[in-house]
Amino acid sequence: MAVTNLRCRECGATYPLDARYACERCFGPLEAVYDHSHLAGGDVAELRRRIQAGPQNIWRYADFLPLAEGPPGPSARLASRVGLPAGCTPLIRADRLAGELGLREVWVKNDAANPTHSFKDRVVSVAAARARELGYQVLACASTGNLAGAVAAYGAALGMETYVFIPADLEEQKVLAAGVCGTNLIAVKGSYDDVNRLCAELSGERDWAFVNVNLRPYYAEGSKTLAYEIAEQLGFELPDRCVVPIASGSLFTKLAKGFSEWRQLQLVSGSEPIMSGAQAEGCAPVATAFAAGQEFCTPVKPNTIAKSLAIGDPADGPYALELARASGGQVEAVSDEEIVAGISLLARTTGIFTETAGGVATAVLAKLARSGAIDRDERVVLLITGDGLKTLEAARDTFSAVAIEPSVQALDRALAAGVA
Ligand SMILES: *Cc1c(COP(=O)(O)O)cnc(C)c1O
Ligand SMILES: [Zn+2]
């Protein structure tokens, strides 16, 4: 495979491909590095054909993922048949949404269509496959919600024991979806940031593969598959802009890394997209630092209905800030009311019911469009990362039902009274 080693983002020190996430010299985060020279300078059409002939899931991008032996399963062909294949989710042209926002071209990448209904299936697929290569028996995570469900499900599919750590106040739908897979579900009395600290400590004491702690460099690479898919679905063209929800900032930054890798190989045409990050006002450390012109985030205590984005001390915050600025984008925040309005707007115009994180992204898209920050002619991709069935409570008061006796007259009376 093409992955060669891990490298510190800060000082450039290199490390072997084992379970580690921080540089021993400077504590900077580690990132996977590849040698794609065997793909460069060759026949681009041939390389595209090879990708298109791959399995209908993220393993079609195996050349760009940090696995030593390749996708799980007896052969690459069978990678579609083993475990819970993620990816190849729909990219939908949303003309009615675009029309309402005064834009020409908006696409919705519906990652709620993954096996456990969020984009976390991509990152967990890669981390779990690498954990198995490294010989781990136990998979674990610190979760804001969706990661819990994904780790529990992929553990079940691969026959690995799992430990899932969640904040005690998580939405019930997310707790149930994880618990039913037979995981060891640990509800921690505290915020996600407390859960994360506990897991960082545990990763030094237990021989467990924490997908987003000691396996984080591998986990993070899974997000790049969203970039590859978007580019492939647009006919190997890059969009002009992506609107992306930010929790730790990993998805936001890795999406850009994916676009950039393919651009360097000349697999895609177009320039690198403008990156617009989306946060909830109740947990907006990156948006706040962006607005203040700071290079680092000041940690906050989250209080928002967008629980899957409620990370008060985002690990990739500085890199998200750097990317938003360098790409000509921004990081915006929206209120809980705007998030609910965003969920309704997306559902009304596309039929896609998203969770609060998707409401954040949709509301930020609407805000940027209405303020004129997005040029009318841009081709915009909106990332919908999770399913509305996971945060049902948020949709509760967005409509009312008409209750009637079972007769035509009762219906006519109710409609005439303008109840509907
Ligand atoms: C985890 C998650 C994100 C983004 O998380 P990052 O930590 O920034 O990679 C976005 N949306 C949903 C629904 C999530 O669960
Ligand atoms: Zn370093």
3D architecture notes:
Helix content is 36%, strand content 15%. The protein is globular. It contains 14 helices and 13 strands. The protein has a domain at 102-115 and 221-395: 3-Layer(aba) Sandwich (Rossmann fold), CATH 3.40.50. Helix 4 (146-158) packs parallel to helix 5 and helix 10 (285-292) crosses helix 11 (317-326). The protein has helices at 44-52, 95-101, 120-133, 146-158, 172-179, 192-205, 216-221, 224-233, 250-264, 285-292, 317-326, 336-350, 356-370, 408-416; strands spanning 3-8, 14-15, 30-34, 91-93, 105-110, 138-142, 161-167, 184-188, 209-210, 241-245, 274-280, 330-334, 379-384. It is α/β, with parallel strands linked by helices. Helix 9 links the parallel strand 10 (241-245) and strand 11 (274-280). It binds pyridoxal-5'-phosphate and zinc ion. Residues 118, 120, 146, 245-252, 308-309, 355, 357, 385-386 line the site of pyridoxal-5'-phosphate.
